[in-house]
Amino acid sequence: MGGCSLFDVKSLTLSDITKEIHHVFKLFNLTYFEGILSTPAITIQSNGHHRLSMGWCSTKPVWGTQDGSLQMYELNLSAEFMDQDFFETMDTVLHEMVHLYHLTIGIQDTSRKGAYHNKNFKQKVLELGFEYQEDKPHPTHGWSYARLGKEAKKKIEEMPIRKEIFVIARHGYTYFKALAEGKDPAEVMSSGIINNNESSSKSIKWICSSCGVSVRAYNKNLNILCGDCDQRLEME
């Protein structure tokens, strides 16, 4: 695992992060899926209007050559969440790889246009060490809200992953303008103006009741755990 003392964040590029995600994919593929998954087109893109989404896996091959000799699924991580807790990022990668696994072996794990995660999804993520806080499906998203358990986190922690490089994300011009002007970006963002000066609803502050760590998001249905306390963040 890379040493943080030798890491210069100013030299960091998206290429470094994308390369590391490919490395993570290979590790997870061998560790959890017996290496049967073909490498998808791994991307980092804005989640746009789908602010709840931390990532997705396409249900069909969407990348490839013109003659179709190479076809790849797309596995995307949302650019807005790339600097969140390391285990949240690993959670997202492994979550989407479960979808890719089921696509590969021909098992359907979602319905309702991909929104509802069924019992096939639940069974597989439990096998991999995910946990559910409630033993009942969400009415809209089904069994989607599984989170890495302590043993799964420990296993990933021991893997040779450069977790220190997951520190940049797409914050938008308004955020960095506020920083340059000495303002509190969180307060500016909560005013309803984000990214390309497009209007939006006010951001919501979510807090860990145990340690006080907080994040801001633009939805009322955020489902995120504190990586240190393993506690679900609560709306302020």
Keywords, separated by commas or semicolons:
236 residues, alpha+beta, 3-stranded mixed β-sheet, 6 helices, globular, SprT-like_domain, SprT-like domain-containing protein
* Low-pLDDT residue intervals, each spanning 5 or more residues: 1-5, 193-201
Cα-based radius of gyration, to the nearest Å:
18 Å
Overall strand count: 14
Question: How would you classify the helix and strand content by structural class?
Answer: alpha+beta
Number of helical elements: 6
Shape: globular
Mean pLDDT: 86
| Portion in helices | 25-40%
Strand content range = 15-25%
Instruction: Please summarize the sheet with the most strands.
Output: 3 strands, mixed
SSE arrangement, N to C: HEEEEEHEEHEEHHHEEEEE
Main sheet: strand order: 1-5-2
Description:
It holds the Pfam family SprT-like. It comes from Paenibacillus phytohabitans. The structure is a single chain. The protein has helices spanning 14-32, 86-105, 119-127, 150-157, 173-180, 185-189; strands at residues 41-45, 55-57, 63-64, 71-72, 74-78, 110-111, 116-117, 130-131, 147-148, 193-194, 198-199, 204-207, 214-217, 234-235. The chain has 236 residues and is α+β, with helices and mostly antiparallel strands. It has a domain at 9-170. α1 (14-32) packs across α2 (86-105).
